[in-house]
Amino acid sequence: MNNIFFKSMVLKQGFYHRNVLQVARDLLGCRLIVKSEMGMVSSIICETEAYDGEQDLACHACKGKTKRTSIMYDCGGVWYVYLCYGMHWMLNIVTGPKNYPATVLIRGTRDFSGPGRLTRNLGLDGSLHGKPAVPSSGLWIEDIPKKKSPEILTGPRIGVDYAGKEWAQKPYRFWFS
DNA sequence: GGGAGGATGGAT
DNA sequence: TCCATCCTCCCA
Fold first, then answer.
1. CA at A138, C1' at B3: how many angstroms apart?
2. What is the CATH number of the domain that holds A156?
3. pTM of the entire predicted model
């Protein structure tokens, strides 16, 4: 059965308090849900990237805690949204325990490819920054029971060559086959 | 206060 | 390959 209203479950905050690589994997196949005055829209997450702590030179927190990155030091389960190239909103979910800056970038869903187009099409922007991923915030994620585990592929993250060979090449991008 | 550059995407 | 477009961060 594919009855999402019957079987889907809002991801608990504890889901996000785990290792960022595990969260990035487990988010694949989950349903991202937006609720606004326009109604409710959802799409299955099919591509993510992990950014793992201050030692990760591709992670914004590699320069330490700043005004922009301070939200990454919160406990997992809140949205980290920032503007890229002056026009694209990037949607990330903070993961891990408090004071460990790690996030998962939601790069694409079944209906929208690319992190910039995803947010544009879903009408998401910086107003969500810092809010928790729960229904009352208007943006949250639900799990969908799967009959079998999907085959997950990994590869280097996109657009982070500046981070140096070691970190740019780590297989921190996850997507479906 | 200035300047460089960026977790993109669309046009050329 | 180029570039729109603007926020953040670093440096002076």
1. 38
2. 3.10.300.10
3. 0.94
